[in-house]
Amino acid sequence: MYPLIKQCHRVSRSSLSYYSFLIDHCFSLKSLSFARIAHAQLIKVGLNRHTFLGNRCLDLYSQLGNVNDVLKVFDDISRKNIVSWNICLKGLLRFDNLSLARSVFDDMPERDVVSWNSMISGFASRGYFNCALETFWEMQKLGVRPSEFTLSILMSMVFGVRQGKEIHASVVRSGLGALNVVLGNSLIDMYGKFSSLDYALRVFLTMEELDVISWNSLISACCKSGYPELALDKFCIMRSLGYSPDEFSVSAVITSCLNLRNLEKGKQIFALCVKVGFLYNTIISSATIDLFSKCNRLEDSVRLFDEQDQWDSAVCNSMISSYAWCGFGEDGLRLFVLTLKKDIRPTEFTLSSVLHSTSILKLEQGTQFHSLAVKSGLELDAIVSSSLVEMYSKFGFIDCSMRIFNNMIVRDLIAWNTMIMGLTHNGRVIEALQTFKELLGRGLPPDRITLAGVLLACSFGGFISEGMTIFLSMEESYGVKPSNEHYACFVDLLCQAGRLDEALFVAESMPYEPTYKLSERIAERLMELEPQSSLPYLVLTRLFEIRGQWEGVVRVKKAMKRGRVEKVIGCSWIGVKNQVYTFKADQLQHHRGKEIYLVLRLLNWEMEAKGYLQ
């Protein structure tokens, strides 16, 4: 290294090409110490003030140095050009100094599309999406023509279809639309993310040039939009037209088989993977492990996992998730411990999969995983934070959930939904509705899960008029078609308002068959509000008949034949050490019922003594 420096003394000091070569050598070595030696040589010969060499040195420190290095070199350049300003701006953003970068951007004597792209990308990558969009609209007003990169950044951060269509319009106005395969693929991917398959198909059909990524984006859009069979059809067309599928194509198709719960078709796709040499590709293996477990073939998931040549985080995450899905959360936790022993660094998906196993976790274990997230630098990741919010809310520590949610840098819709649901299930319904209003204020469009949580909050809190207003405006205001979960809350609101006839009418006029659970909820609600009415008993009788639960039919009819109509008695069964205990709302049917009641009475006294019962 040092002989090269000594050789510089023998070269003419006016030789710009040689000093440029010296800086190139610094880039290849990626050594900060060598970069400082080279910079010292430039200062010694007085070429640090030269625009070209100064820019090269500025770029070098932007990648290897720190903020002070960048500012020092930038100040030394006597005649700064647009390249000098752009490199300085990129360097500050790379070092995460957004406020100083904004100041430099505002002070620039002129800005080109690179300057605007840097600022838009800087805002977007740090979660300031509104600032990124405002910067883009400002760029448009000043007549700066966006590049492919500009539009790609914007399409990656849109929150709704309407916003996406505005960006699409900018693509068309820029003249880059059908001629650019990269932008076309980004548009298909963006529309697929919002389940707007019709728009994704239109973009695909207008593209003059297609590649494998175009087909992958379309297949993925079909899958995300709820058309897995169409995704399989497009995959077949893709192959018939001579396009060779890659691991992403096959992964999307396996996911479609998963959504269809079509194990046989999934096995065919997996056989294709073996044929084309994708067997040990981690993307394919992960998707196939998910497919087998979701189709209740956990043993096949385990077999495929065991056949892997080496473990990586993606395959381990899928296996941990599969264990949790099939009710073997403890095995998932054991595998997680093994991954740590094998020095496989947990990712955000690993921690999320483990935290979703809260049914077998204790609070102490949950807090340990929280600590691990902090140590791994993943606490502020949107996926991990949402999982932590969900975990603490399930344990009833909703204030901890709120604290994590408020500290999140970027809140996606999943985070908002998790917080709204957590508040609702913990009885903080007013705060749940306030969170929903804040979500709307941020410009994020709610989805079916958001609205289900809000309607549930209205139902729990007795906010009848608010809940009815939201339900009746769901499709028009938010573009969400009501499903069973929304109808269940709406029917409950109607029952609370005493509008029983309307509740039954809504249940009967639903666009699809109401679920057993929804119909049962209507009947139970009617029992509470009109205990003397025979209508809910007739509803339950019909439900039991449909499901073949004849003992339920007998119980309901016996209740109706009594002198006065009584509510059907609830019943639970608990198995303890091969012995089944049957509990009813008004009695305990078991020969050791006396002993059990004595234990319950003792527990009651202990709770009263400790002040748990008032």
TrEMBL record:
Top-rank lineage group of the source organism: Eukaryota
InterPro entries reported in the protein's UniProt record: E_motif, PPR_At4g14850-like_plant, PPR_rpt, TPR-like_helical_dom_sf
PROSITE patterns cross-referenced by the UniProt entry: PPR
Pfam families xrefs: E_motif, PPR, PPR_2
GO BP annotations, alphabetical order: plant organ development; RNA modification
GO terms assigned for molecular function: RNA binding
UniProt keywords, alphabetically: Repeat
Ranges for the PPR repeats: 112-146, 211-245, 312-346, 412-446
Protein name: Chlororespiratory reduction 4
Native organism: Salix purpurea
